[in-house]
Amino acid sequence: MSSTFEQIRTLDPVADHQRIVFLSTRVDFPFDTTRSLEFALFRSFAVPSISALLDRTGEFLRASQKRYDDTDIIISEMMEWGYDSERGKRALRRMNQLHGRFHIANEDFLYVLSTFIYEPIRWNAKYGWRPMCEREKLALFYFWREVGQRMGIRDIPENSDLFERFNREYEETNYRFTDANGRIGVETVEMFARWFPQPVRFLIRKFMIALMDPPLIEAFGFKPPSRVTRWMVDGALRLRARLLRLWPRRHRPHLRTLGKHRSYPAGYVIEQLGPPSIIQHANETAPQGLRGGF
Length: 294
What we know:
The protein is mostly helical. The chain contains 15 helices and no strands. The chain is globular. Mean pLDDT is 92; it is low at 286-294.
């Protein structure tokens, strides 16, 4: 086990959940956290009320990479610096400004929030180089529960078991195919495929769908992958996990907020994240000290 894990074992999942989340997601599981949160967002697009909003505004289809980067940055700011840090508060304020333009059902907010907790846990159970301990799982719950409260989300369950049950029941009730789901799903897969050279993009499309469960595939209208493709993708990720157990442990955090983003090659300003149409209005209403600067 890593020295990071030993440190996590000394922390309290309620009082120290921000520190535990930082150590777990940015030191021990940076790759796994990023991939699992990508799928967390992808799962939300299988909900007709959510995909219809994205489809209706046209913002996602016009600039899917920028929307991905904006979401990635906002989430990373809170997870890496803490939701109650100066940077974390700015990111949370920006997220509320972006969401405030639309009428979004509280239940949809609850579902998206739940995916940020349970998709990393489920990914880890399958592909983690070590299993998450109970402290890490609870820390994710308490972290995102606090963020949800600061977003004004109502009726967040008091314990993790209840919230996970809500997550599963919501998917069973709401996942179904619509044309908007299909358009948003295809564009999301294509966005990820564009990260790679043209000759291998067809493989990326196949691999992404192979990581999806049948209800998700059906909700997007994708063609189910072959058993061989599923076996290859699953096997490759499990092999990676086994090899990482033999690898020297990471001791320095991998911070996405300090890395490069495709939509912001020269860096970003938190208050300028989001569609250009609302940047001016949001900045005009922001406190003077929050304009500009990283």
